[in-house]
Specification:
Blueprint: H1 5-18, H2 37-51, H3 54-58, H4 66-78, H5 83-90, H6 94-105, H7 109-119, H8 125-135
Helix pairs in contact: 4-5, 5-6
GO molecular function, one term: DNA binding
Keywords: DNA recombination
Protein name: Integrase
């Protein structure tokens, strides 16, 4: 699973400070057992209230912790992640990845064409426009 170095450092610091229980779990109750679902829901709700605006809090944004997984995979794709790699990281097939996250890829055609043009050493469309503007001046 990819993790930016600053987040990895935060996780390592947390592990050094708090450790894990014998079975390797990071999150545990005060007595070392499983965290109750009601506790998770309460803490998640409190975190959403603290992190989001009132309008965002009323919206479905990050309503469940699982929503973060969807946001993460969407970010990887929108950021230009290679579908096969993103699918592997997410534990999906490429077909499922594209079926579930296709809307994230919509509208990225121009960006993709620009990347292809750069790899081929061709001017991007906006560079062509700038040259046309200079020629007509």
């Amino acid at each position: 699973m990819p993790c930016p170095p600053p987040l990895t450092a935060m996780l390592q610091q947390h592990l050094e400070q708090y450790g894990v229980v014998d079975d390797g779990r990071l999150f545990r109750s005060l007595d070392g057992g499983d965290v109750a679902e009601s506790t998770l829901a309460r803490v998640w709700d409190k975190a959403r209230k603290a992190a989001l605006s009132a309008e965002e809090y009323r919206s479905p944004l990050a309503r469940r912790p699982y929503d973060l997984r969807h946001a993460c995979v969407s970010t990887w794709l929108a950021g230009g992640g290679i579908s096969a790699q993103v699918a592997m990281w997410a534990g999906h097939s490429v077909a499922v990845l594209h079926e579930v996250y296709a809307k994230v890829l919509a509208g990225l055609e121009e960006e993709s064409l620009g990347k292809i043009a750069r790899i081929l050493g061709l001017p991007a469309d906006d560079e062509d426009q700038d040259e046309d503007d200079l020629d007509s001046a």
